[in-house]
Amino acid sequence: MSIFQLDGPTRLKGTVFISGSKNSALPILFASLLANDSVTLYNVPKIKDVEIAVKIITNFGARITLKEQHISIETSSIKDFYVPHGLSKSIRASILALSPLIARFGKGRIFFPGGCQIGKRPIDLHIDGLKKMGVIIEIKRDELIAYLKKKLTGAEIFMRTTSVGATISILIAAVTAIGKTVIKNAACEPEIVDTANFLNSIGAKITGAGTDEIKIEGVEILKGGKYRISSDRIETGTFLVAASISKGSITCRNTNPSLLGDVILKLRQTGANVQTGKDWIKLDTHGKRPRAVSFVTSPYPGFPTDMQAQFTLLNLIAIGKSVITETIFENRFMHVSELVRMGANAFIERNQVFCCGVKRLIGKNVSCNDLRGSVSLVLAGCIADGRTNVRNIHHIDRGYENIEIKLRSVGAKIKRIS
Ligand code: UD1
């Protein structure tokens, strides 16, 4: 098991090139299974979750070509419609393999998905939506067996809760279904827009992605094509927080400021100078400690739950007091107790963290069980006095490409130790 060893405190300064979005790459890889010709995807992040998605698709029998700059997927040789137990449990997004299998081949088998243990994370909305479109789903213990008796048919589907994953499942299923599908109370996240743009580029007829009502006119066949995945807004936000907490200055390039509205707003409220251009964002603290900012996580365009852990750290070393309210997942404060061990002053009550900023953190041996919580510990290690060892870093490798190389390039003293 590798660990990250960090020596601090360091002030982080420089430029970071942002990778492609994890949460776009995963659904787009699975949506590629709908294409009848070869699909080539650019700007796919080199992260563990993508590796697992590629394994799932290869396991179906698809031919995948991995090159430095792109991934190509060719589906004509698919002969298996089954995601094995280990792969289903490896990533939450494995559930997104189900609807393309049903849409293209009329059947699919998968186990209940795994992923970060940040809450109950049910899949009822995926199942209910697919059932409304005519899919028969049998659940045998931990396994879902899905098949069609008649053709997949468009339907009007109201999402009881706003769900990114369920919106994507239904969107993918609807693209080649008979007739029209309307998803009401759809999630509006940019990764849904990215997935819809990709599908439209290979022949789908989707309108309204990015709003809470998405309409899909079923088409008979999808061709192949080339598509560039958008930049990762959460990786961008993570590096901006790194600059903020270290009293530094970081420019993120190859990114899209328009996707980070609420995050930039909050960073400006900390007192940092945040400038944006077409594809870059620069945060400069001018050597000042951030001011605390309270926030509530909510679906896009609200403050992203995937930035909550990093902003919790920010508040724990900021000037003043703040309250953080998590409304999306029930168990997403696992990083807080580790940060308290490093000298932070916080307490949790139900879905809120009450923070009282301290001037410095102290290096410790820490670990966390989810991706964003773990990255917040790495950032804490950059600014803490002395040595911090972060364990369980496989969580970070799931979602951040070359994080130690990028952090070193802005001055962090970080080593991966095997
Ligand atoms: C996606 C993102 C994840 C992000 C989350 C919220 C990917 C690969 N992951 O996860 O990084 O943190 O959106 O922005 O894109 N829910 C149900 N029933 C369902 C599905 C979800 O009740 O069938 C609930 C969940 O428990 C949660 C809420 O809906 O409380 C939102 O979850 P959802 O948007 O589905 O998250 P994911 O798609 O898993």
From TrEMBL:
Modified residues (2-(S-cysteinyl)pyruvic acid O-phosphothioketal): 116
Gene expressing this chain: murA
Descriptive protein name: UDP-N-acetylglucosamine 1-carboxyvinyltransferase
Main location: cytoplasm
UniProt EC number: 2.5.1.7
Residues annotated as domain Enolpyruvate transferase: 7-407
A Pfam family that the UniProt record links to this protein: EPSP_synthase
Organism phylogeny: Bacteria, Pseudomonadati, Pseudomonadota, Gammaproteobacteria, Enterobacterales
Annotated positions binding phosphoenolpyruvate: 22-23
Pathway: Cell wall biogenesis; peptidoglycan biosynthesis
Active-site feature positions: 116
One GO molecular-function entry: UDP-N-acetylglucosamine 1-carboxyvinyltransferase activity
GO biological process terms, semicolon-separated: cell division; cell wall organization; peptidoglycan biosynthetic process; regulation of cell shape; UDP-N-acetylgalactosamine biosynthetic process
SUPFAM superfamilies in the cross-refs: EPT/RTPC-like
